[in-house]
């Protein structure tokens, strides 16, 4: 057979196994799914040396490929990050079981009693790039919500993802659940991605997690429904009523805590009344922290600011770079975000309740914040334990996609010999 035929056969087998596992998971008790995740967390801690060794090899290969610092940061694991992965598994394990949860119930004059209850989506395909922690996060959330999952990690994190996947399988085995409930595509061949996008009978939804190129490809070519966000072009607006200390702390954290994540601020908007005072101070803070500030004509006169080019507005840098612009007022900030934002996360810093409410009402980003860093755009920080991604679409799931968002619902209707007239 040709290589492409081999990949097609491999993916078909994985798909069939995933569909069968999804049926078993939907019927599995919550205690078993929880036990599997708790055991997986123990395995991650026990296998930390092996995981770090695999990650070191991936990092060495990444440097040889001249990956960007942001990509390398996403790829890198250390003891603290492995600890966070284990903690995330336990956090998801400890959450209430979403399956069977009654969303609503009511009685009809006909005598029918109707309940709307949560049910798994079925089989989820996750396609991601260099972040190996997605292996654990996605596996955990799909298992918690009773879904089987097919994981296709990027070539950069191939070895690390394999080591983490083995821990998840260990948990499934110990809990008596099918090991095929969490499968990893065991090849770097990109033909596997093309196959996944066409597996409409085996996969119920695809979740891409990565850069614009990957997500755009998936959205353009997938025949399977997609939960996705194209880019994390996050804005922070300093309103005229911004508190000085809050503004300085929020902006610096939003940009510099981790520059390579989708919740990093990429554009700073400053009310014209603050341009020469607080705005200038915030920009100085950013420059002192090693951030390149690309400013509008008014801000370009400040020390260290680089004049912005037209394509700096609406750009996801994922680096120590931020665009900055002076706007006339709240209306100007909202207009800019509508024109250049990606619907991911946008924040306002203000003590004015009316301005904050207007910002929240008039913008339709998946996440809107007040006096808080955009780096909180994360399922773990929202109390979900982890996330499978941030969805910016408007159908089914928006914002951090946790276990609850990976469910659908069905109606359970009960009568007593009830017939329709």
Give a written overview of the molecule:
The protein has 421 residues and is of the alpha/beta class. The chain has 2 domains: 3-227 and 401-413, Aldehyde Dehydrogenase, Chain A, domain 1; 234-376, Aldehyde Dehydrogenase, Chain A, domain 2, CATH 3.40.309. It has 13 helices and 16 strands. The chain has helices at residues 3-27, 30-46, 48-64, 69-75, 79-93, 133-144, 158-175, 191-198, 212-221, 244-256, 278-288, 330-340, 353-362, and strands at 102-107, 113-120, 123-128, 148-152, 182-184, 205-209, 234-238, 265-271, 292-295, 306-307, 321-327, 345-349, 367-370, 390-391, 399-400, 407-414. The strands form 4 sheets. The protein has a 7-stranded parallel sheet with strand order 10-9-11-8-7-12-13, with helices on both faces. Helix 2 (30-46) packs across helix 7. The longest helix has 25 residues, at 3-27. It is globular and about 70 Å long. The model has no long low-confidence stretch (mean pLDDT 93).
């Amino acid at each position: 057979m040709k290589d492409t035929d081999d990949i097609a056969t491999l993916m078909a087998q994985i798909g069939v196994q995933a569909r069968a596992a999804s049926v078993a998971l939907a019927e599995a008790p919550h205690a078993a799914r929880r036990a599997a995740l708790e055991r997986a967390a123990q395995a991650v801690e026990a296998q930390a040396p092996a995981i770090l060794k695999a990650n070191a090899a991936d990092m060495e290969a990444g440097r040889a490929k001249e990956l960007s610092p942001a990509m390398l940061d996403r790829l890198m694991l250390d003891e603290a990050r492995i600890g966070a992965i284990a903690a995330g598994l336990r956090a998801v394990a400890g959450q209430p079981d979403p399956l069977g949860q009654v969303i609503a119930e009511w009685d009809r004059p006909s005598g029918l009693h109707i309940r709307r209850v949560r049910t798994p989506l079925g089989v989820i395909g996750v396609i991601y790039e260099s972040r190996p922690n997605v292996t654990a996060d996605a596996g955990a959330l799909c298992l918690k919500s009773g879904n089987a999952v097919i994981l296709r990690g990027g070539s950069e994190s191939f070895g690390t993802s394999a080591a983490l996947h083995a821990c998840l399988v260990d948990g499934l085995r110990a809990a008596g659940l099918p090991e095929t409930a969490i499968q990893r595509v065991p090849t770097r061949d990109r033909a596997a991605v093309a196959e996944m996008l066409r597996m409409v009978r085996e996969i119920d939804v695809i979740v891409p997690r990565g850069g614009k190129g990957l997500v755009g490809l998936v959205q353009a070519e997938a025949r399977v429904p997609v939960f996705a966000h194209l880019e994390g072009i996050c804005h922070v607006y300093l309103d005229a009523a911004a508190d000085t200390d809050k503004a300085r702390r929020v902006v610096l954290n939003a940009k510099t805590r981790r520059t390579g994540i989708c919740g990093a601020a990429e554009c700073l908007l400053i009310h014209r009344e603050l341009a020469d005072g607080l705005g200038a101070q915030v920009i100085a803070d950013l420059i002192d922290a090693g951030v390149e500030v690309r400013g509008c004509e008014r801000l370009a006169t400040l020390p260290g600011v680089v004049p912005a080019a037209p394509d700096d507005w609406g750009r996801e840098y994922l680096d120590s770079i931020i665009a900055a612009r002076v706007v006339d007022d709240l209306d100007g900030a909202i207009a800019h975000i509508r024109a250049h934002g990606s619907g991911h996360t946008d924040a306002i810093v203000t003590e004015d309740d009316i301005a904050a409410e207007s910002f929240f009402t008039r913008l339709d980003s998946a996440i809107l914040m007040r006096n808080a860093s955009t780096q909180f755009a994360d399922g773990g920080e929202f109390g979900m334990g982890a996330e499978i991604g941030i969805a910016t679409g408007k159908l089914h799931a928006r914002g951090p996609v946790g276990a609850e968002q990976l469910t659908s619902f069905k109606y359970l209707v009960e009568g007593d010999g009830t017939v329709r007239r």
